[in-house]
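Recap for those who missed Tuesday's class. We walked through two folding examples back to back. For each one, the amino acid string is listed first and its predicted structure tokens come directly after. Nothing is annotated here on purpose, so try labeling regions yourself before you check the end of the notes.
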Amino acid sequence: MDRATRGRSIIVTAAIACAALAAPAVALAASAAPAAPASAARPASTPPCKGSSIEVWLGLNGDGAAAGTTFYPLEFTNDGFHTHTCYLAGKPTMYAINGKGQRIGPVLAGSTSGPKITLKPGQTAFSRIGIVQAGFIAGCGQATAVGLEITPPGQTGQSSRQLIGSFTFPACKNKQFMNAMHVVAGVGIP
């Protein structure tokens, strides 16, 4: 065998050896590659929170006052017991109550508009509520409130209402004296 033939034989042998060594690696890489899904699965959408899975509580230390209004963080916690991730959006519905549990003044209507705040079990969102000092409202028929009835945003019905008691403040029997902001993520207590 001459030199040229021997050189071609070595090159062919080397190429075959490389192919033999590479074949298992290519096969291993191909088996490790993820298969394309048969159809794209749509992620489950997050449902709105149910009133029964939301604990409502109030940060009783007022976090500021402006023009006769004291602001409080009204907290909404996904209670974490047998609940799932859900969302709140909008403003709470609320009204003041007297010592007999009767409503004082107009109901502050809630809403469902606004950004969706996703709450995993145990997480909290809050709405900043403002209570206007009754003496600043012209024509206010004053009464003493001893608590609030709160319905979380997007909820209706008696079963969704929650009482925040032992919270005394001057209220108006005939004029709106409260306001609320949209819920936002996090705990609002400063």
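Example two. Treat it independently of the first, because the proteins are unrelated.
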Amino acid sequence: AAPTDAAPIDVAAGDEFGTDPAAEGDAGGAGLSGPGWVIQLRGYHFHNQRGKPEGQQFLRETLIENLIKGSIQLPDGPPAVPGGPPTMIDVSFAELGISHPVVVTKRRVVDVEYDPEAVEGQDPGMRMQRAPVMEGLGAAAEPAGPKLWKLRRLDFVVQFAWKPTLRHTRELARQGIVEGVPADQSF
């Protein structure tokens, strides 16, 4: 991702649930310093079933929680045989330098009609006029309207800080030789 001068859309001092974005995902109130990146994800989700976590709450319980406590398998472990390739181990996102995830938009869940048969390049959220179906001797039948799904959609922007870490630095941090986020530390 490249740095951008553009401001995030709908930046809010807090989300609709009253969360302070500066504190969300913050490890003990420590601020950021030094070089790094602010990564911005723009997206939407349809996981908005009434009576279950939805909207901003769903984002916090899934994406934000995974950025804080999640991990990925990387070839960071010691070789299984001398001189061999490194073994795959769990590396936390914190060890990779990811921190301070926050939902920066304050939006409400909206009802939408979704065309599940939209083809690539078409916006599935828009009604598209389909070509008439030909019947018999070339006479065009009335076009059947698309069967639209009624869904609940949340558009969002999530940002997080990323200070890339080298594999060698992560290994030294695990051994306690240099300062860093050990693999077993969570926020």
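Answers for example two:
The first strand starts at residue 37 and ends at 45.
The longest helix spans residues 55-69.
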